[in-house]
Every structure is written in C-alpha cells, then in structure tokens.
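Weekly modeling sync, notes
Attendees: AB, CL, MP (scribe)

Item 1: holo prediction request
CL wants a bound-state model with adenine before deciding which constructs to order. AB pointed out that an apo prediction alone won't tell us much about the pocket. Agreed to run with the ligand included and paste results into these notes for async review.

Input as submitted:
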Amino acid sequence: MRIDIVTIFPEFFSVLDVSLLGKARQNGIIDLGVHDLRDFTHDRHRTVDDTPYGGGAGMVMKPEPWGEAFDSILGETRPTVIFPSPAGEVFTQATARELAEHPHLVFGCGRYEGIDQRVVDHTASRAEVRLVSLGDYVLNGGEVATMAMIEAIGRLIPGVVGNPESLVEESHEDGLLEYPSYTKPASWRGHDVPPVLLSGNHGAIAAWRREQQIERTRRVRPELLSPSDFD
Ligand code: ADE
C-alpha cells in the first residue's frame, strides 16, 4: 500500500519508522511519503493560512498550497484522500478494514479552523474524498488522528502483523469488546488467574471467554450488543 501524508508538521510522523509499521516499511509492504505543505508555498514566510471570509475566530488553511501538493501526489489512479476532521464520519474498525483494501491512501492534515472547503470539493473531482473523525472531541489538527488511522489500517494489511490469528480475537473484530487475558504466574499479589483457563478444557475456555466478552460489552458499551450475541 502507498500512503502519502500532507502536513505542516512532517516530524510528527517520524514514529512511523519504529515498531510493526516501521518493519512493514522496511519490508516494502507499506510505502510512505510525508510531504511538508509549506514546500508548496511561494512567499518568504511560507504562509499556509489566512483569515476566514465572513469573519470569525481563528485562521483557515489557504487552498493554493493544498492544490499544488495534491497536483504532485495524486496520479491518474484516483487514490482515496482522507481529511481527518471532527465534522467527518466516525472512524471504526469497519472503516479500517475497508481502507486497508485501498492501494493508495492520501491523508490531508488540517490545522487551525480547518482547510478552505474548495480544497475538499476540488479534490473530489479527481479522487475519492472522505472526511473522517476519530470521535466526538476536538484535536489541534489532523496529525494525531492520521497516526491513529494509519496504525489501525496498517496492521490489517497482510504481512504487517506476524500472527494473523491475533487480529481475529480482538476488540471490535466480532462487534464485541475482547475478553481479559492472563499470563504466568498463575497467582500474583493475591490475584489468581480464573481456574477455567488452567483447566485445559478448550470448550469451557471458549465459553468463558465469550461470556466475558458479552459481560464486558454490556457493562461498558451496551450499544454495541445485538440480540444475536446471546445465541
Ligand atoms: N481534527 C481535529 N479533531 C479531530 C477529530 N476528532 N478527528 C479527526 N480529526 C480531527
């Protein structure tokens, strides 16, 4: 997968050199390009923002640098361009699964009060455009949201996570929160591992884990449950 990021803070993304995603880049599974929006300005101050038409607080990102950045990144292949925004559709595991199938993702990280709307409208004429929110809260810009999305998407690309089975038994993969996990020692500071996990009875372990998933989901995220979860 090819991933391009346009940002005024390219240094944010140096963490993509490490861990599983860093390895995926070394192995050629993920090909990453980070682009400094200011490289597409032409004034001495490398200006990327201006005051909003109609008044109001804050600054808006100017369209011209974005247009030039996308001119250089978007080819003839119609990539998917994602603008992280609290005004977008909410990012879920289903979104991650869907985006993991795309060969080319481009993230446009806005700052300030956002990007001139014409950037979104014009980009939609040459790419699939999605406004995507991490959740109902406001970040200072799209960089942290982009990092979170790339991590969630990247780990679903075949070859990125060593043991693909570990992807199946995670929170949200089957619509429920995941069951609690334990490792050795069997007793620690007065807390014992649930005996069923030491029983060697695989049927009983699977049933216990399912119960735990449902109980946890009911307690913390009841809106995720559906009647079929109790079958
Ligand atoms: N930019 C600012 N807040 C955001 C959020 N909640 N999700 C995605 N991008 C954002």
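Recorded for review: Residues 93 and 172 are 6 Å apart (CA to CA).
Action items: CL to compare against the apo run; MP to circulate these notes.
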